[in-house]
């Protein structure tokens, strides 16, 4: 017994040595947002650069709010995470992020500054007028929010307005992203189109509008939408579209690229449009939270993600578009069969006529009708409450009906069994 206890204590010591936190990198990213084969490659690259071992522990989330709560409330020790712009803004305001310091990375392998598109650097700069988010975050992927539609069932005119998500013609075939902010923004833009046209409100003001009046208006609209909703989805919408189960999906451009390609292989034709009223342009970026335990490996990881060949692999796997504005990335996406687009806003002055998929890289006219979301601070609770009222009402009325039917069935069964018992007793007595 004594020998066994000594052995057990020894193994515990050995185990704690082998899980040395310096040799672990905890990454928390969106699901379906990386080519996972780059993770072991990072481990080998890190060893080659530093002579140190590293093991990536990779976890995923579906919505910004889940990830945020793990850091805000749970103080979890992730080393590198990938929030969206408005969440980066919130984390900056709350002092939850560490400033980035790439001093440990030799210039010869520093891929960050030389590759990030100036357009994306400007987006991050605009996140907060007082603190430059570029000092705390390195952009990863970016895109727009729009409508994926089945071109055999829906015309571009029908899909080209946000009103399509409550069009009764498509009831039961509409998928909506289960992402409150990313649904609220386009619906509010749709509802305020008159004011936008008249110039009495700007897109930027709408992105900051958390007033009770606007929340109520969006809630009323979404309550009209919900009867036609096939699913509120975090990640299965693109798949449902490729199988032809949904014909309309309020979604992100990266999911649209993925879905279009997959669908084409099984003979389903999908396309993507940013509705005419305007929408949201977004960017997700790598940051190091203040509870991180391995800042060195986190910095190397962020750098590795900016290496053009790694960026291209992540794009090809996920359908999303890298924030990397290098010529290598641009050339990897060229398709000579497509019409040229002016992408100088993203790739620089030479890129005025580039043949790429406009879902991947929208032209400037689309970008000009899109705006960046902003953090609402404490008002976010009002949005989440509205969201659960919208989604929950549907479930609870159905739930009430099911419960009532079940109770009635139980009462009927009890009454029936009592009656037959009495009948049996009577016939016994006779
Ligand atoms: N499956 C990964 C999806 C990540 C998309 N991020 C978009 C955030 C928009 N606010």
Strand content: 5-15%
CATH architecture name of the largest domain: 3-Layer(aba) Sandwich
Heteromolecules bound: spermidine
Which descriptor suits the 3D outline?
A: globular
Please, what is the CATH homologous superfamily of the largest domain? Periplasmic binding protein-like II
Cα-based radius of gyration, to the nearest Å: 26 Å
Q: Distance between the terminal alpha carbons, to the nearest Å?
A: 74 Å
Provide key terms for this protein.
430 residues; alpha/beta; D-Maltodextrin-Binding Protein, domain 2; 2 domains; 8-stranded mixed beta sheet; 11 strands; globular; binds spermidine
How would you characterize this protein structure?
The protein has 430 residues and is α/β, with parallel strands linked by helices. The protein folds into 2 domains: 173 residues, 3-Layer(aba) Sandwich (D-Maltodextrin-Binding Protein, domain 2); 184 residues, D-Maltodextrin-Binding Protein, domain 2 (3-Layer(aba) Sandwich). It is 48% helix and 14% strand. The chain contains 19 helices and 11 strands. Strands 4, 5, 6, 7, 8, 9, 10 and 11 form an 8-stranded mixed beta sheet that branches. The protein has a 3-stranded parallel beta sheet with strand order 2-1-3. Helix 2 links the parallel strand 1 and strand 2. Helix 8 packs across helix 11 and helix 11 packs across helix 19. The radius of gyration is 26 Å and the shape is globular. Spermidine binds next to strand 9.
